[in-house]
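[job 0412] stage=fold_complex status=start
inputs:
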Amino acid sequence: GAVVSQHPSWVICKSGTSVKIECRSLDFQATTMFWYRQFPKQSLMLMATSNEGSKATYEQGVEKDKFLINHASLTLSTLTVTSAHPEDSSFYICSARDERSTYNQPQHFGDGTRLSIL
Amino acid sequence: AQRVTQPEKLLSVFKGAPVELKCNYSYSGSPELFWYVQYSRQRLQLLLRHISRESIKGFTADLNKGETSFHLKKPFAQEEDSAMYYCALMSGSEKLVFGKGTKLTVNP
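[job 0412] stage=fold_complex status=done
writing structure:
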C-alpha cells in the first residue's frame, strides 16, 4: 500500500534555530501534500497545502514566512519552521494524496514529527 | 463554514458491548465524510468513507443528511478497537477538516 515517510520523528532544538521536516511518498507520486499541526489532545489543524512545482497554499492564520514549504519533486515536500520558538512546539503531520487511488484513500498520513523547542 | 463535531472526548465500553461514536458536520455543499483511526503509537489511517459504504473491522457509518450526522457504529466492540477515532469532512478543495477526536477504550 501507499506509504508516507516523515523525518525526523522527533526533534529537540534551541529557540531561534530553524528546523526542517521532510515528507516523502515512498511508492507513489504526490502532486499534493498537506501539512497539519496537532496540539496535545486536540485535533489536526490543516496548516497548508503543498503543491508540486508551485507555491503552497496556507490556511488563514498560518504565517507563511514562519512555516516555509517546498515541494520540489513529486515525492518530497519539506516544512521548515524558521526561527523556532517554544510556542512552535507541537506535533506536525504530513499527508499525501495518491491520485491513482483517490476513491479508496484520499490521503495517506506520515507518522508525524514531534518538535520541541527549548 | 465547514465544521466537524465529535461531542465525546472519551468513550469507554466493555468488550462485546455495542459502541457508537458520534459525529456531526456542518457543510453547505454535498459532503464527503470519513472516519480515521489512530492506534497507539501508529499513524492515522483511513477506517472507512461514506461513499464506499463498506464495513471495515465490523464498523459501519451511515451518512444522515437530515441530521447532518455520520456516526460510527460497531455491534460488538473488541479490545483491539481501543484507539483514537477522528471524523473528517472533505471539502470541494479536497482539504480534510477533522473533528477533535474520540478516544475509545474497550475494557475486558
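[job 0412] summary: The mean pLDDT of chain A is 90.
[job 0412] exit 0
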